[in-house]
Amino acid sequence: MEDNYSVSWKEYLDTRIQHIEDMIDTKFDAQEKAVNVAYSASEKRLDGMNEFRKTLEDQNGTFVSNAELEVYKTMIRQDLLRISSEINSLNLSRAEIAGKASQGQVIFALIIGIASLVISLIKLFIN
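^ that's the sequence the OP posted. Answer follows.
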């Protein structure tokens, strides 16, 4: 006795198998989409990291190496020593100039000396 609602085992199994295949296909499609989204996110992240790496490389190109820094330090030390020596030389010259009498002072002292000598000689002959 068959009623309108009965199905054969073959139809039932075929329907179930088709349903399971559809579910598997749906899961695979969802997994493929998830993998593509993850891949896209990873690519964006890697692009950001590459940009950061490039920025660091560009910045690193502006830094001075240790060897160059030592050369600059040596040059600065030599310049400071030279400048210090020149300053000392200028201070010594200034001291020498300050210690020397001017030509006018020498002539004035000579005139006073000669006048004193003349006065002394006159006083000597008068007495």
